[in-house]
């Protein structure tokens, strides 16, 4: 698959668009006053690597010579929230910082109210609505998007064509999805439908209902006792029981495959669909030797997974801090510069455009022309947020909350363990789903109370 076009043509288009958009932004009348912004992010790499994030910071300083950006590397990547808490307690909070979870930042009173800063920003207005809403609590904007990815399935088009089967495309319905997974599976020939069946539990409700989100989430809470969730669990169970997923196979069955893990089996061409994120695009382009595409989830709703950045309540330079995040993420001029820099410096273009701006999307698709990815952008108006970084208490509601129910090898299984046991046939979900739903909503309520909602 040829995703990358002529660099000369790309740069010509991008330079033209940058010239048209360079009349930015926010109070450039302050250019005579030099300020320093401290910036903490887990994706800046090292000085020696000089990845695209560091190059973008250099471009920002060139664009705004009165603003110096100082990278704060005192926050450990593996203990991000602990590092931010320590910085806050010692009055050394970075002006701008990545957020593992927005609710944690709200509960600890780290975050500046950004509502007024973003109110009249044309670039922020072009951030997908579902993303803007995900960072807004009680009508207060607490965070800004700092990178965007889509979640969903990638398809091995060659494998389906080889078997004379219809190639799944973005927007396929649920029956077509199930048929594709089943029909492509041939264990003896080293072919299997997909990798991770448990992902279905999360996306299925949103795929069959316009009112439910990821894992049945709505603003009112979870609806795990709904027919949508039960049907998704039963589909997952069917895929596991019939050995349509690599991770549910026995070791003997796996010996038929060219690869020891799902990633290797996918890369070798033995898997029809793989659940992954668009962060894998560069890896796939460089390493896969078959024709592939991104098809998202059945039904066509786009699943959005974002990073977020916040501005410290203690900052003395809120407008400059906002301008920096905008440049690094959702601003038109900044993202066009990111594309130009990636092409000129031969760097990986990490992250999708966090905007619906047509000029930006046209420039992006000059270098990344996957049909399924274009379709995903067209469907953003009915997008679904993957809620781990935005919904209060989600980690407890989805995985970690203990249920008090004993299963084999665990006298007090957590929610995830109980759902997995039901998929594997160890328990009947009907006996426990009401309890699980109540517990998930209790943790959601507790999460909301922690941030004053």
TrEMBL record:
The cross-references to SUPFAM superfamilies, in alphabetical order and at most eight, read: Periplasmic binding protein-like II (SSF53850)
Q: Which UniProt keywords apply?
A: Signal, Transport
What subcellular locations does the record give? Cell envelope
Identify the PROSITE patterns for this entry.
Answer: PROKAR_LIPOPROTEIN (PS51257)
- Tell me the leader sequence span: none
Q: What do the Gene Ontology cellular component annotations say? A: cell envelope
Q: Does the keyword Signal feature in the UniProt annotation?
A: yes
The name on file for this protein is: Extracellular solute-binding protein
List the source organism.
Answer: Rossellomorea aquimaris
Lineage of origin: Bacteria, Bacillati, Bacillota, Bacilli, Bacillales
């Amino acid at each position: 698959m040829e995703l990358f076009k002529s660099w000369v043509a790309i740069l010509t288009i991008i330079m033209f668009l940058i010239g048209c958009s360079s009349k930015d932004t926010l109070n450039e009348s302050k250019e005579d006053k030099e300020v320093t912004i401290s910036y903490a992010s887990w994706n800046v790499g090292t000085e020696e690597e000089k990845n695209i994030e560091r190059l973008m910071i250099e471009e920002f300083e060139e664009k705004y010579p009165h603003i110096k950006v100082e990278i704060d590397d005192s926050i450990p990547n593996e203990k991000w929230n602990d590092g931010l808490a320590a910085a806050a307690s010692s009055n050394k909070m970075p002006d701008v910082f990545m957020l593992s979870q927005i609710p944690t930042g709200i509960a600890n009173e780290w975050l500046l109210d950004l509502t007024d800063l973003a109110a009249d920003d044309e670039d922020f207005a072009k951030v997908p609505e579902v993303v803007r809403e995900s960072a807004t609590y009680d009508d207060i904007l607490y965070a800004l998007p700092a990178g965007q990815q889509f979640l969903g399935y990638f398809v091995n088009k060659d494998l389906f064509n080889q078997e004379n089967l219809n190639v799944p495309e973005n927007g396929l319905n649920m029956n077509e999805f199930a048929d594709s997974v089943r029909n492509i599976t041939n264990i003896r020939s080293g072919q299997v439908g997909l990798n991770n069946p448990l992902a279905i539990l999360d996306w299925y409700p949103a795929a069959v209902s316009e009112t439910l989100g990821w894992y049945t989430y709505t603003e009112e809470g979870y609806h795990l006792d709904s027919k949508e969730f039960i049907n998704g669990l039963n589909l997952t169970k069917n895929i596991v029981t019939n050995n349509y997923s690599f991770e549910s196979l026995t070791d003997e069955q796996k010996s038929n495959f060219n690869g020891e893990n799902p990633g290797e089996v996918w890369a070798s061409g033995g898997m029809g669909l793989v659940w992954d994120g668009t962060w894998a695009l560069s890896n796939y382009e460089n390493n896969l030797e078959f024709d592939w595409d991104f098809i998202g989830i059945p039904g066509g709703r786009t699943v959005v997974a974002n990073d977020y950045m916040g501005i410290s309540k203690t900052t003395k330079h809120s407008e400059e801090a906002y301008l920096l995040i905008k440049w690094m993420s959702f601003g038109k001029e900044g993202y066009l510069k990111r594309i130009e820099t990636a092409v000129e410096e031969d760097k990986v273009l990490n992250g999708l455009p966090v905007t619906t701006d047509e000029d930006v999307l046209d420039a992006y698709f000059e270098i990344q022309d996957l049909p399924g990815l274009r379709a995903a952008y067209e469907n953003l108006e009915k997008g679904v947020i993957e809620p781990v970084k935005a919904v209060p208490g989600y980690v407890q509601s989805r995985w970690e909350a203990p249920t008090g129910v004993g299963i084999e090898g665990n006298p007090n299984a957590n929610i995830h363990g109980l759902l997995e046991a039901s998929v594997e046939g160890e328990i009947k979900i009907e006996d426990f789903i009401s309890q699980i739903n109540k517990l998930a909503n209790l943790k959601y309520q507790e999460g909301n109370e922690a941030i004053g909602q």
